[in-house]
Predict the structure.
Amino acid sequence: MVVATSRDVARMAGVSQSTVSRALRGEGGMSEQTRDRIQQAAMALNYVTLETGRSLSTRATHRIGMVAGELTNPFYPELVEPMRADLHRRGFRTLLIPDRDETPVSIDQLADGSLDGVVILTALLGSPLPQALADRGIPVVLVNRELDGAATDVCVMDNRDGARQAAALIADLGHTEAAAILGPVQTSTSRDREAGLREGLGERGIAIRASMVCRGSFSYETGFAAMTALLNRADRPTAVFCANDVIAVGACNAAMTAGVQPGRDLTVVGFDDIPMACWPAFQLTTIRGDLTALAEEAIRLLTQRIADPVRARERVVLPTHLVLRGTHGSSANPRSRRRTPGGS
Amino acid sequence: MVVATSRDVARMAGVSQSTVSRALRGEGGMSEQTRDRIQQAAMALNYVTLETGRSLSTRATHRIGMVAGELTNPFYPELVEPMRADLHRRGFRTLLIPDRDETPVSIDQLADGSLDGVVILTALLGSPLPQALADRGIPVVLVNRELDGAATDVCVMDNRDGARQAAALIADLGHTEAAAILGPVQTSTSRDREAGLREGLGERGIAIRASMVCRGSFSYETGFAAMTALLNRADRPTAVFCANDVIAVGACNAAMTAGVQPGRDLTVVGFDDIPMACWPAFQLTTIRGDLTALAEEAIRLLTQRIADPVRARERVVLPTHLVLRGTHGSSANPRSRRRTPGGS
């Protein structure tokens, strides 16, 4: 797009550049007529004032707020980066807005008029934020995590079906003592993946014992600590479902530390298929969701919402599928057998 | 900080909130006197207009542009995240500005008046950008990479000394056939690490053969491809210095794929000490630079520059030191010996 400069506005309005600047800053020293002529020229040229970054004709700031967790958690960059790149191609800039347990993002941070729209990656079940943004007319899309009944566009993976596929694999390999390392209960991703896992195992007559279910953040540290604890049990599980790949990578590292080799001694299944999952060091068997497609759909939804605020709400669900690599194995492997008889 | 609202401005100026809004948008329908009174109230209260995000009295936008490479490259989040968090605590928001080979960042993207300052992580030797920003009076700090003679604040690690320490380790372990997987020649980091490596080896009578020097981007892919090529040589090296940890992690994964175990069959040394370096899967011997301290120093320099544009320029160099983990070993190990006699 060709960007008009204050020189173009000055030429069209027949005034000096400094008069343009003063007029658009709302300063005095000119007639209302001159000011009007400058405003009209600026609007006709779709001039974005250097001062405000806001187009006078469209009121657009061309800035999108992206609410995400820690970027050092390898999951977030996999969504943030393609969304940022897509927004960049469409002429938007990305403002990173952190959402942390200790400093959760607030409506005031997002509704200050400086953003054309908001992408939320960290929505918690029951959070009033997405609805509050929608109520104020701020375009918003939830990506990866969703809320029940939020009046916003949503783009997620088929978490439940993916976890059912993981459950089917675990059961088909003959495992009857399965464990799960899950994420926060307030996230739709962990909730739906847990539901799919239990459903898929239940259909095959397998129940997960309550003591075999660990919960924490979606982090390497959660996976490492939970796997360490599971492997210290006398009745250690033979298969561990991890609610995402970052947890699974932490879990695999813990297993290596304990001298347990995923795939040979223990089955580990992740979720997401982040690039690290296919590194030779891990060769993680996982459930693939297409994160690039998820990012693209989210930006499509958001930009369509910005262009047409009253369009029908969309909920996009992308398919998931099992990727077999190196961390699954039969329960018949002697080294993976339970050390003591354990109930199922 | 207490944030004034348009209600506060309206009360102080003795007008309605809608008049405040219209006045600050430069719209007509009021006397110049009223407009002046509103402007003065807004300035007195340091009111940040919702429309512009720019304080009327300080002209500050409270937005910092951060020019970084791909966030999916695990190095960048390790600097971006602590800098973003530090800026957040100081009341600034972070705008992510991508810098890619195919779309290098331009002065126009940064000097549009919407940023209070700029952090550049991706400076290339000879780039005119930092100087151009400084010439326009835009506060700028270079972090991690620097330029020769740039008139900006700079914060880097002691790359040369760190690489000398790596060279000393490699030499002390008895390796005489060393290889290097380096980053782009236009980066000060790769240049200085290469210089330190050659210096440290040279002092011990070891030269790196030209055919043992590989170059590419600072990426997993570079490390993987280069190590694969090195291990396919009849005269494979017994020690490989990698110009950063991301390259080293790629190199270690390639070694595992080739059935070569770093630490037992081959010495691999990285640089940076990103968190992944200490994962049990890698246990990377590396040169540690304190990335959190680097981030803190960079933001200190930038915010001091914003507060005092004419203060003396600073170049901060943080120390580096060797972290011994699991990927180094003696050249005496039989499996790491050269298959054919090779010159040094």
About this structure: Residues 291-307 of chain B form the longest helix (17 residues). Chain B is about 35% helix and 15% strand.
